Amino acid sequence: MTTPHPAPRELTVALLGGGTVGSQVARLLHESADDLAARVGAPLRLVGVGVRDAARPRDGIPADLLTDDLEALAARGADVVVEVLGGIEPARSLILAAMAAGSSVVTANKALLAEDGATLFAAAEEHGVDLYYEASVAGAIPLLRPLRDSLAGDKVRRVLGIVNGTTNFILSAMDEQGADYADVLAEAQALGYAEADPTADVEGYDAAAKAAILASLAFHTRVTGDDVHREGISTVSAQDVAAARDMGFVIKLLAVAELSDDEKGVVVRVHPTMVPRTHPLAGVRGAFNAVFVEADAAGQVMFYGRGAGGAPTASAVLGDIVAVSRHRLSGSLGPGESTYAHLDALPVGDAVTRYYVNLEVADKPGVLAAVAQCFADHGVSIQTVRQDGHGDEARLVVRTHRAHDSALAATIEQLRSHDAVRSVVGVMRVEGEEGS
Ligand code: NAP
Ligand code: HSE
Questions:
Q1: Residue with the nearest Cα to atom 7 of ligand 2?
Q2: How far apart are the first and last CA of the chain?
Q3: Catalytic (active site) residue 364
Q4: CA nearest 216: which of 368, 372, 110?
Q5: Which domains does the chain have, with CATH numbers?
Q6: Rounded to 5 degrees, what are φ and ψ at 337?
Q7: What is the mean pLDDT of residues 74-98?
Q8: pLDDT band (50, 70, 90) for residue 6
Q9: In whole angstroms, what is the distance from residue 228 CA to residue 268 CA?
Q10: pTM
Q11: CB of 312 closer than 6 A to ligand 1?
């Protein structure tokens, strides 16, 4: 006679945050309860939802689950604590309290991971619990676990993509409507894509945090938000977008993380970038995200989908809840932080890419040669030049071959102080051309 298996115990889930993402996590935990129980092997029971204002009713969250005592909820020893508050504090202290109480943690908090992931990973290891964070980068898109698990046997050389939905929405609308940045930002705020204070998105902080997380996983090294060169989109004008369009390009805010040629360092950067309209990233419109990973054996792999929004992000959170819940039942743990490569975070000057330079110059003999000499002085090779004259002035649009960012910066400095150059109208990096 066989002994029946004991009925699987129930697993408890504490939710810190009941906003855009948290309310959708609560909804899915409730609506998909039977399927989740079957997939995990035990029922998941939501034991509390921590918010600032527990008296305010929330759609889909029973009032008796709401609490403003987040310390007690985090430290009560639930099997899984889900942090979807955002920001650095109290999120960090609450996660640490949860781990100290033996809970595994799922978080969507890219800002905290990029600023102080080391403390969280160390605490997870110390307390023997999981720390999962798929939702922190690119919303619904399964990206972090493919990097951490599926590509763990390969050597990643480059990660490049669109990881911020708000800025992609704005840049797409500027491209499609020829509209100004300020007008489109207002529209993005009215539609709920951009927040009332859009700084984190439009100035590239959100993308830089995600780039740091991607680089850490891709290159098995620790990269923080401070290691990332960051430029936002607030200075991109309707004229820049039109000039890019004229040349067959579209402007995207790209996050790029690259292994150096000697494999001893990484350069991680976020900046507006000109991308050929024929490149797959050019077709990523609105609030969607897309990321290319280039690895030695795999070649190029592309990930695409909804990078923001309550339900898409909750999908990634639920996937993590299922994963860590299975570990709780089997008494196992997922992999921790992998930083064995100890690579140097290199300055953006070490990046190698192509450039577009738009100059207003005096239209007189020798100017073109003088401008070309400035590029030559710094070893920057010109790919194409287009000149349009008007009166005694001419517009020169120069596109370069691949060059070091530091060499291009020195070229621009020299051009700015050159007598023949009336103004440097625009400079932008170019990615995604054949051979780059
Ligand atoms: P949100 O809508 O602002 O919700 C935040 C929730 O946390 C609210 O319920 C709020 O309570 C609660 N909260 C915040 N600070 C608190 C505090 N000090 N004490 C008690 N409760 C506090 O934010 P969200 O958009 O859901 O984002 C949550 C996290 O997910 C962030 O880390 C964000 O970066 C990440 N994320 C968001 C998205 C997205 O598309 N929204 C996508 C990917 C990742 P009240 O409701 O009472 O104010
Ligand atoms: N503000 C972020 C974006 C949310 O626009 O992409 C997703 O992380």
A1: 308
A2: 67
A3: no
A4: 110
A5: 11-139+311-330 (3.40.50.720), 144-305 (3.30.360.10), 351-430 (3.30.70.260)
A6: -70, 140
A7: 98
A8: low
A9: 5
A10: 0.96
A11: no
Please answer whether residues 392 and 365 qualify as being in contact, where contact means their C-beta atoms are separated by less than 8 angstroms: no
Residue type, position 10, single letter: E
Mind listing the pLDDT tens digit for each residue in 216-257? 999 999 999 999 999 999 999 999 999 999 999 999 999 999
DSSP one-letter string for 177-210 = H---HHHHHHHHHHTTSS-SS-HHHHTSHHHHHH
Q: Is residue 432 within 8 Å of residue 276, measured between CB atoms?
A: yes
pLDDT tens column, 277-320: 999 999 999 999 999 999 999 999 999 999 988 999 999 999 99
With a Cβ cut-off of 6 Å, ligand 2 is lined by 139, 164-166, 201, 206, 307-308
- The conformation of residue 65, written as its DSSP 8-state character, comes to G
Q: Which two tokens stand for residue 68?
A: 């403003």
Residue 61, ligand 1, Cβ within 6 A: no
Residue type, 19: G
* Ligand 1 atom closest to 85 (CA): 7
For ligand 2, the distance from its centroid to the CA atom of residue 307, given in whole angstroms, is 7
